[in-house]
């Protein structure tokens, strides 16, 4: 089982060393001891712990609560507050930084152990839920993108680069409101590409679209694509080497 590493933020050196000794006896690792905000942030840049034990009241005007807020914006680490003040007002202020527990001084080793284990389990549970939510969010975003792309691909008019517009219903390609003279096979290729606008379709798919009755052969297909692309700006129908072709929208 992976050892849990803990950082101690405590400005009383004797108390900090006692906490460190207790943690080591309980089987935890200690990544460092910091007496203030500056030292804490320096330690975090060097090594991120699995949990932070944070004194709420630090010397020289430093606040453990404010430090916790800074840490929460940059890191994903659970924090347990250490405090000699159990007044509701103090706890209420501390709660705004979403800690994973409180340990009131003076405390015994088993109190600290219990608080740490509960915090680690809660944090692990919260992280799994967040990861699951992010996964669902990513899937939903992907599905929404596909739906929008599918709706766009089914649109009657497909707007291409350089002012070209393909009317899928009428099977006509326009430029500046003028009909572009294309053969029926060339129109079939344009239509197949516009069904997957912005995406690559294979040579086989293009061949099937242009010659629905029987295979044409590589030479005939290359000739068809060459003639079609020669009638249009080169960057409208793009040759993706070794993979196929795609048509680019406006």
Total number of domains: 2
Q: What would you give as the CATH superfamily of the largest domain?
A: Response regulator
Strand order of the largest sheet: 2-1-3-4-5
Shape: rod-shaped
E-strand count = 11
Task: Count up the helices.
Answer: 8
The main sheet comes to: 5 strands, parallel
What is the name of the CATH class of the largest domain?
Alpha Beta
As a percent range, the share of helical residues equals 40-55%
Report how far apart the termini are: 56 Å
Backbone CA Rg: 32 Å
User: What series of H and E elements makes up the topology?
Assistant: EHEHEHEHEHEEEEHHHEE
Overall pLDDT level: 85
**The CATH topology of the largest domain, please?**
Rossmann fold
Query: Based on helices, strands and strand pairing, what is the structural class?
Result: alpha/beta
Which residue ranges are poorly predicted, with pLDDT under 50 across at least 5 consecutive positions? none
Strand content: 15-25%
CATH architecture of the largest domain: 3-Layer(aba) Sandwich
């Amino acid at each position: 089982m992976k050892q849990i590493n803990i950082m101690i933020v405590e400005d009383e050196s004797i108390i900090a060393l006692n906490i460190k000794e207790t943690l080591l006896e309980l089987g935890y690792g200690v990544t460092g001891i910091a007496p203030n905000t500056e030292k804490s942030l320096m330690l975090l840049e060097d090594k991120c712990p699995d949990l932070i034990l944070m004194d709420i009241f630090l010397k020289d005007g430093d606040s453990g609560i404010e430090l916790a807020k800074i840490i929460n914006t940059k890191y994903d680490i659970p924090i347990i507050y250490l405090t000699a003040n159990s007044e509701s007002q103090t706890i209420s202020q501390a709660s705004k930084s979403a800690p994973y527990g409180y340990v009131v001084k003076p405390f015994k080793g088993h109190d600290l152990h219990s608080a740490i284990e509960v915090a680690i389990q809660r944090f692990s549970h919260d992280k799994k839920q967040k990861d699951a939510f992010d996964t669902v969010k990513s899937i939903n975003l992907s599905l929404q993108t596909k739906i929008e792309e599918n709706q766009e691909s089914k649109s009657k008019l497909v707007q291409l680069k350089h002012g070209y517009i393909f009317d899928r219903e009428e099977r006509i390609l326009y430029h500046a409101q003028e009909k572009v003279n294309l053969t029926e096979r060339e129109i079939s290729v344009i239509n197949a590409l516009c069904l997957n606008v912005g995406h690559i379709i294979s040579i086989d798919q293009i061949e099937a679209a242009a010659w629905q009755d029987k295979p044409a052969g590589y030479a005939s297909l290359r000739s068809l694509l060459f003639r079609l692309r020669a009638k249009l700006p080169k960057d409208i129908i793009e040759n993706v080497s070794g993979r196929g072709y795609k048509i680019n929208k406006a």
